[in-house]
Amino acid sequence: FLVILIIAVTTLWLFLKRHYSQWKRLGFESAEAVIPFGTLSKVYRKELPFGLLMADVYEKFQSKVVGIYLFFRPALLIRDAELGRQILTSDFNSFHDRGIYVDEKNDPMSANIFALEGQSWRSLRTKLTPSFSSGKLKAMFETVDDVAEKLRTYLNDQLEDGKTHILDVKSILTTFAIDIIGSVIFGLEVDSFSQPDNEFRVQSDLLFNNENNSFMNRFRNLTNFICPPIAKLLTRLGTIEPVIYRLRDIVKDTIEFREENNVIRKDLLQLLIQLRNTGKISDDNDNLWKKVESAATNLKSMSIDMIASNAFLFYIAGSETTASSTSFTIYELAMNPEILKKVQNEVDECLRKHNLKPESRLTYEAIQDMKYLDLCVKETTRKYPDLPFLNRKCTQDFKIPGSNLTIKKDTGIIISLLGLHRDAKYFPNPMEYRPERFAEESKDYDPTAYMPFGEGPRHCIAQRMEVMNSKVALAKILANFNIEPMPRKEAEFKFNTAPVLVPVNGLNVGLSKRW
C-alpha cells in the first residue's frame, strides 16, 4: 500500500509539474506558477486583488503574450495594445465569448448579456442596443437628475455650517450610484440618502459586502470565472445567491404593477417591458413613453428572469463603475488645483449659457456642452479603469501575427487594462493626471491602448449612460461645492473579491459650500 501511495503521489506531482510548464514547452514566456494556485497565489493569500495582480505580471514582462495559470486553468495575458484590440475587434470571430459561467436552464439569472455566448448573445445584444441611444438617454435624464438633486441636498445638509468637512466621496457616490440604478434600472423610487435602510439598499449591501459572503459564496464567485463547469455543478447542488433572486422578485413585482395599472416611467425598465411585450424597443420618440403595449403571457418575447438578469447585470456593472469614476475624478481634482479651476469655470459658464443656476435642475444639453469635464472623465477611466482587465475565450485556433505561436481553442485570454493604461509606451507620464492628453488638438497618447469600456462587438453597451451619470454628479458638486486642494497621494487599493479597484479607507476629500 505504501509503495502504491508513493507511486500515486509521485505520478500526480510529475503530472502537475508538467501541466504548469506547458506554456514554456509551447514557446511562450511564462509567469511563475505555484502548485496548485498557478499565478494566483497572491490572490489566494489575499495580498493582491486579481486586477492588480494582472497589472503586476504585465509590468514584469516584455513579451506581447505571457502564459499564466488561473489556478489549474491555463490562460494568456495580452501585453500588446494592438494585439489586444485586434482580439476584441477584427478577429472577434476567434474570441467572441468571455468563457465565464452561464446556465440558462438551471440558473436563468446568470443568462445576461455579459455572460451569454454565441447566437444567444448576438440576439440579445441586438434587442438591447436601442435602449441606450442618445434619444433614450435624453428621455431618462430627468430621472437621473432627480437622484443627483438628492445628492446635492445631502451634501448641502452635511456642509450646512459653512466649514470644510473631510468626507469619504467614494462612500457618498456609491449611495448616489446605487440610487441611480434603483431608479433608472429597477424603476424604484428610492432615496438612500434620507432612508438608508430601504430594502433595495439593504440588499445591495448584502451583495457587495465581502464580510457578509460565506466561504461557499466566495468560492462560487471564483469558479464563475476560473472554472465554469464547477460553477454549473454547484448550481445543480443548490448554491445560488439568495440576494440575486430577491432582486429578481423586486423586478417582477414592479413589472406586474406597471402592467396592471398602466404605469409608465421614463427609465430602462420601461424599455425592457416594451421589449418583453412587443419583441423590440421603439425608435426615439415621445410616443414611446405614452402607451403600454401588452401581450398574452404565452406571446411574451422575454421572460421576467431574462429582464431581471440583465437588470441585475446593469446594477452590478453600473453602480460600482459610476461611483468609481466620479469619486476618483473628485480625488484627482483635489490634488490638481489648476485642473479643478478650469473644469469648475467650464461648469459655471455652461450653466450661464443655458440660463441655469447652481441649484437649478440640469439639462441634457448643458451636460453635453461640458467638453472639458468629458476629458476629465476620460482621464479618470484611463488611470482608474472601471474594470482593470478584460477577459475572452479563444473560440477557434488563432495564430499570433508576426510569430510562430498559436492560441489554441478554449484558451482563456486576459487583457490588463490597468497595465496598458499605465504604460508609458502608450501614455506618457502615466501616473500624471492630465485630461488635456485626450484633447483633439494634442492627443498625447496612443488611442489603440485606450479601452476603458472594452472594444468591438462586446464593448460595454451602457458606456454612454455611465459617462452621463458621472458627469451629472460631477456638475452638481462642482457647481455647488468647493473641493479643497490636498497634497498628492496615490490611491492604494485593498484586496477585494469583486473585479474592481477598491481604495483603502475610501477616498477622503475636503468639501465646503460655494454659496
Low-confidence stretches: none
Radius of gyration, whole Å? 24 Å
Helix content: 40-55%
Mean pLDDT level: 90
**Tally of DSSP helical segments:** 19
Question: Approximately what portion of the residues adopt beta-strand conformation?
Answer: 5-15%
Largest sheet: 5 strands, mixed
Offer a few descriptive terms.
single chain; 515 residues; alpha+beta; five-stranded mixed sheet; 19 helices; 10 strands; globular
Can I get a quick summary?
The protein is α+β, with helices and mostly antiparallel strands.
SSE layout and pairing:
Elements: H1 2-19, H2 22-25, E1 29-30, H3 41-44, H4 50-60, E2 65-70, E3 73-78, H5 81-88, H6 118-128, H7 134-158, E4 165-168, H8 169-185, H9 199-208, H10 215-226, H11 228-236, H12 242-261, H13 268-278, H14 304-335, H15 337-353, H16 364-368, H17 371-383, E5 389-393, E6 398-399, E7 406-407, E8 412-416, H18 417-421, H19 463-480, E9 481-483, E10 508-513
Parallel strand pairs: 1-2, 3-8
Antiparallel strand pairs: 2-3, 4-10, 5-8, 6-7, 9-10
Helix pairs in contact: 7-8, 7-19, 8-14, 9-12, 10-11, 12-14, 14-17, 14-19, 15-17
Fold and architecture overview:
This protein has 515 residues and is of the alpha+beta class. It has 19 helices and 10 strands. The chain has helices at 2-19, 22-25, 41-44, 50-60, 81-88, 118-128, 134-158, 169-185, 199-208, 215-226, 228-236, 242-261, 268-278, 304-335, 337-353, 364-368, 371-383, 417-421, 463-480; strands spanning 29-30, 65-70, 73-78, 165-168, 389-393, 398-399, 406-407, 412-416, 481-483, 508-513. The strands form 3 sheets. A 5-stranded mixed sheet has the order 1-2-3-8-5. Strands 4-10-9 form a 3-stranded antiparallel sheet. A two-stranded antiparallel ribbon has the order 6-7. Helix 14 (304-335) packs across helix 17 and helix 15 packs antiparallel against helix 17 (371-383). The longest helix has 32 residues, at 304-335. The protein is globular. The protein starts with a helix and ends with a strand. The model has no long low-confidence stretch (mean pLDDT 90).
